[in-house]
Fold these 2 entries.
Entry 1:
Amino acid sequence: MPAVYPPKYVRHILVTLQSRGHQAFLVGGCTRDMLMGRCPQDWDISTSALPEQVMEIFPDSKPTGLKHGTVTVKINSRSAEVTTFRSEGAYTDHRHPDMVSFVGDLTTDLSRRDFTMNAIAFSPDGLMADPFNGTSDIDNHLIRAVGVPERRFEEDALRMFRAVRFSARLNFEIEKETLEAIKLKAPLAANIAAERIREEMEKILLSRSPEKIFELIELGLLDSYLISRPQLIDDGGSLRKLPKKALNRWTCFSFLLETYGCIESVEDFLSKLKLDNRSIKVCNGAAQMLKDPECPDTPVGWKRLLNKYGVDAVSCAAMCGDALRDGGYQKQLKAVLKSGECFSLKHLAVTGNDLMEIGLRGRELGEMLLFLLDYVMEFPQFNQRDILLSLAQGTEE
Ligand code: ATP
Ligand code: MG
C-alpha cells in the first residue's frame, strides 16, 4: 500500500469519474513515487472515459494533448492530466507511435508504458493493478522494461535514456536483460532529436547521482556526439560536489570529456546538443579558464577574467575549479566581487563622451578606454574621473 496519498482535488477527479461509471486510476510516476514514499511532482490519471466525456464531466478542463487522449482537468487552480486508456501502433521512427487508439482496458494501457515501476495503477479505494510486478521491482530497486526490452527500445529509443535517468534519480539498478538490450540497441539513439537527449542528460546531471551521466557514454548512447568513447571516466566526485545548477554541471562534464579527448571542444559538443547560445557561451568561457594552467591568484588576475568572460562564466569556472581541484577559487572571486572594484567599461569613472571632450576620436578613443580600464583594474584607487582624464591627457601629450 502506498505510503503517500493523493491530495483532495485528485481524489475528487478520480471519484467523480468513477461515480459516472468510468474506471479511473492513478498511473505512472505518481503511483511509483507514492509507493516509494516520495511526494509526486505531478498527478496522472488514466481512465476508460473518452476525452470528450472527461471534458463534459469537468467543464474547467483543456484538451492539452487530444491526439494522445490527454485532457488537463483544473480544480480550484490545481490541475491533473487525465488520459484515456490507450494502445499504440507501430513505431517506424523509433520515437513516436504511428497511431494511438483508445482502448477500454487498463492492462493494455499499462503494457505500453516503459518500465514495470511506471506501469502500476492505483485507485484510492485501495484497488491496485500491477500486471508486470512493478512493486516487487521497486522493492528490489530495479528498472525493468515492460515486455521484451529490445522491442521496447526499438519502438522508442528515448526509453534507454529514461532508464539511466531513473537509475540516477532513484538510485536503482537497471535489470540485467534490460541493460543488455540497451547495449544492443544503443545505435538507435542516433534517431532521437538532440533536444530530447539534452533534456534527459540535464535531468541526470541534476540528479543525486550526476556521475551516472558517464553510464550513457559507457553504454554507447552518446556515440553520435563523441569522437571517441573512453572505457571509464573518473570524475573524482566533482559533479556531485557542484551546486545543483545546470550550467555548472554541463561545464564540468563537458570539460572532462574534452580533457579525455572524447569531444572536439566544449562549444562543439554543447552546440550539437542544442543548448541555448547564452549557456554555450558561459560553459565555453568557463571551460577555457579551466584549461588555462595559469590560475589567477591576484585580484587583478580575477578582474581581467571577469572583464573578458563575464561574471557568470567566471563564477562557473571558480565553482568547477573548486570541485575538480579544490583551489579555493570561489573564495578569492567572492572577495574581488565584494570589493566593488571596477573590471568593466560600465564602471569606469570616465566615458567615451568624456574622452571626446578632450579631443579623442575613433580608434584612439577606444584604445584609451581600454588602457584606462586596465590601469584601474591594477590600481582601483585611481578610478576617479579627474585622475583618469588627466592621465588620458598626459598620455596623449
Ligand atoms: P517524472 O517523475 O520524471 O515525471 P514519470 O514516470 O512521471 O517521471 P513522465 O515522463 O512524466 O515520467 O511520464 C509519465 C508516465 O508515462 C511514465 O511513468 C510512463 O508510465 C509513461 N511514459 C512516459 N514516457 C514514456 C515512454 N517514452 N515510453 C513508454 N511510457 C512512457
Ligand atoms: Mg511525470
Entry 2:
Amino acid sequence: MKRNKSISLFSKKKEQIIELKIILLGDPGVGKTNIINRYLYDKFDQSSKPTLGSSFGEKILKKDGSSYSLKIWDTTGQERYNSITKLFIKGSHIVILVYSIDNLASFDNLKNWYNYVKEELQREKFILAIVGNKRDLFENEVVSDNEGKEFAKSLGALFYLVSAKSDQEGIQKLFTSLLDELILKYGNKALNETSIRLDEDESSKKNKKCC
Ligand code: GTP
C-alpha cells in the first residue's frame, strides 16, 4: 500500500527546548538529594542514604513562550573534589553550592567547592548560588544568615536559605529564580547555543537512580 505523503503536511513542528544543566555540590549530608527530591517530586526523606555516584532528574519549565528542560544533577558529597565529580561539573549552567546551617564545616568547605568549580568552568557561562539548607533547624544554627549572604556576595553569587524538609515553596522559588537570573544574564540565544546534548548513556540514567 502506498504511504500517504500529505500526512506530513499536518505533522506538528517540533517544539524547541533549551536544555540546561544544573548541578548541586556540597559536603555529605547537607541535603542536596532532598532539595532535588522536594523540587522534582515534592518528597522528603528523613533518613535518606548517601548518594552513590551521580544521577539526574528532569523538569520542564515554560517561560515567556520558551521551554526549558532543567536537568538537575545530584552528586555525592562523600568523595569530595574527586575527578569524577569534576566530569559532572563540565557544561553546567547553574552551580548550586549547598551547606547546612547547623554544620560549620560544610559552610567553611564551600571555599574549596568553589575553587574546584572555578577550575572546571573557567571559560563557561554559568551562574553560581550559595544555598543554606535546613533552615528549619534554626535552633541549632551555627552559620548566621549574614555570614551566608556575605560569603555569597564575596563570590558574586546569589544567596538562598531553604529547608527541603519544611519549605516546599522556598525550594520551588529557588529553581525558578535561578532560571530567571540565568535568562536575564545570558539571554535565550546564548543559552540555546550552549544547550546541553546528553548522550545515550547519560539519558538512560535519567531518573533511575536519582535521589
Ligand atoms: P550525600 O549524598 O551524602 O552527599 O548527602 P546529601 O547532601 O545528598 O544529603 P541528603 O539529602 O541525603 O540529606 C542528609 C540528611 O539530612 C537526611 O537525613 C535528610 O533527611 C536530612 N535533611 C535534608 N534536608 C533537610 C532539611 O531541610 N531539614 C532537616 N531537618 N533535615 C534535612
